[in-house]
Design goal:
There is one protein chain. By secondary structure, the protein is α+β, with helices and mostly antiparallel strands. The chain has a single domain (about 5-215), classed as Protein Transport Mog1p, Chain A (3-Layer(aba) Sandwich), CATH 3.40.1000.10. Helix content is about 15%, strand content about 35%. The chain contains 3 helices and 13 strands, in the order E-H-E-E-E-E-E-E-E-H-E-E-E-E-H-E. The strands form 2 sheets. Strands 1, 2, 5, 6, 7, 8, 9, 10, 11 and 12 form a 10-stranded mixed β-sheet that branches. It has a 3-stranded antiparallel β-sheet with strand order 3-4-13. The chain starts with a strand and ends with a strand.
């Protein structure tokens, strides 16, 4: 199995710090970060393009990233396991809130600039919404957060859309993430992107991951 370290993130950070940074069921909108702002967009309307061609399935034993969940990748997206070295100078890049990055799925081979990143939180009893709130608490530039209770595959999930200010691109770019609970702690699947256009073009791959997720 391929093993990476957070050191592999440095070229991406040098290219764009934005790459690292990720309505309730009764019809209302539940805002978390910056409650005075507008929602970043409805997660239910995420997929703006045609469904992508299916590539590999990750998460299972022997896959590029062994996880407590499995899901399908869009064709040509390249997954790599991430091993965070505690105490290393780059360790903070692999930590957001109490979640640790465990897998990075690169869109560049498919023609986009961005990643789907998988983070694992702490506590087998942590609810998906709580995991997302903790995740966003570790993103100081996050704003306009809107949460929704949804499903990932057939698994109960929470999803959040929000914006992050990109000084590099001089814009407030959208990001989103969903979380599910597992016996090994919550899993957060996050989509960023270099800018708003890249994010929108990668949404179908993110939706494929969400719709095909299964507990491992």
């Amino acid at each position: 199995m391929m093993r990476g370290t957070v050191r592999a993130l440095v070229p991406a950070v040098a290219a764009a710090l934005a790459l690292a940074g990720c309505s309730s069921s009764d019809g209302g909108t539940d805002t978390g970060v910056d409650p005075g702002g507008n929602a970043a967009g409805s997660p239910a309307a995420a997929a703006t393009g045609a469904a992508p061609e299916k590539g590999a399935t990750i998460g299972g034993k022997g896959s590029a990233c062994e996880l407590p969940v499995t899901f399908d990748l869009a064709v040509d997206w390249k997954p790599e396991a991430v091993e965070v070295e505690p105490g290393s100078e780059f360790a903070e890049l692999g930590q957001q809130g109490s979640a640790t990055m465990v897998c990075e799925i690169d869109a560049k081979p498919a023609g986009n600039i961005g990643y789907i990143r998988v983070w694992q939180g702490e506590g087998s009893g942590t609810a998906p919404r709580a995991a997302l709130e903790d995740f966003l608490a570790g993103a100081p530039n996050a704003a306009e957060a809107s949460y929704e209770e949804t499903e990932a595959g057939l698994v109960p999930a929470s999803e959040v859309t929000y914006t992050v200010r990109s000084e590099l691109m001089d814009e407030d770019k959208p990001e989103r993430a969903f979380a599910v609970a597992t016996p090994d702690g919550p899993i957060v699947v996050h989509l960023g992107g270099l800018d708003s256009t890249e994010h929108e073009e990668m949404l179908p791959a993110y939706e494929l991951a969400r719709k095909t997720l299964k507990l491992g």
